Amino acid sequence: MADRMLELSRVKRVVIKLSGELLSGEKPFGLDTDVVQRIAAELAEITREGIQLTIIVGGGNIFRGLEASRQGIDRITGDQIGMLATVLNGLALKNALEKQECQVKLFSAVKIETIADSFVAEKARHNLQTGGLNIAVAGTGHPYFTTDTSAVLRALQLDADLLLKATRVDGVYDSDPEKDPEARRFETISFQETLSRNLQFMDLTATSLCQENNLPVIVFNMDQAGNLLKLLAGEQVGTFIHGDDQ
């Protein structure tokens, strides 16, 4: 665990994959503005501590392409609708962060010039270097790719030190904790072991990209207020997933 704390002490640039479901709070779907504001306040505090932050936001609280395909909407159209759902979440989060006096840039992987800038890595890096915070929406801009994969791609493009996956689950387990009362949560685990155990904390493409590029990931529960701040302060929060040489 000391190694993990040492790693976190050197972290300066972070990408957070923010689950869309987090933004709905206790609602079955949509946005809970109180939750959005609470999350924005935590993100703003992190940037005040000097962390350069990029947020990749999901859209599962509004629309899921895979579920839509089972209801007769073709996969490509469903994924495109899902991309637009992430734009809605990104706008809500941008508004909440601006109320925290953050300098926010909204970048989109699809062209919507009147709402967001098209994602260009150099522009996103420049915004970070000048004290700004990025929100990236619309996934990769292509169907068949999840927001997990887009989060890894953005992290690699921006030379991030760490990828955080913020969910409603407090880490990676050896089985489904909702079905197995004896499920064990890992404090640390390698990418290779998650693949061999078929744990699927992210999709296979995202996991493989992290493994190939030695991009460490922490999966944690952001539904619990304060967890993000504790994590980046070096406390044991969530599960640390790493390469074999990390």
Task: Name a few traits of the molecule.
alpha/beta; Carbamate kinase; 39% helix
CATH 2nd-level architecture? 3-Layer(aba) Sandwich
- Biggest pleated sheet: 9 strands, mixed
Shape: globular
The DSSP helix count reads 9
Instruction: Output the strand order for the largest sheet.
Output: 4-3-5-2-1-6-8-9-7
The CATH first-level class comes to Alpha Beta
Structural class, judged by helices and strands? alpha/beta
- Give the CATH H-level superfamily: Acetylglutamate kinase-like
Number of spatially distinct domains? 1
Task: Please estimate the helix content.
Answer: 25-40%
The share of residues in extended strands comes to 15-25%
Low-pLDDT runs: none
What's the total number of strands?
Answer: 9
Question: What this model shows, in words?
Answer:
The protein has 246 residues and is of the alpha/beta class. It has one domain (2-242): Acetylglutamate kinase-like (Carbamate kinase). The protein has helices spanning 2-9, 33-48, 65-69, 75-99, 121-129, 147-157, 191-196, 204-212, 227-232, and strands at residues 13-18, 52-57, 104-108, 117-118, 133-137, 162-167, 188-190, 217-221, 239-242. The protein has a nine-stranded mixed β-sheet with strand order 4-3-5-2-1-6-8-9-7, with helices on both faces. α2 links the parallel β1 (13-18) and β2. α2 (33-48) packs across α4 (75-99) and α6 (147-157) packs parallel to α8.
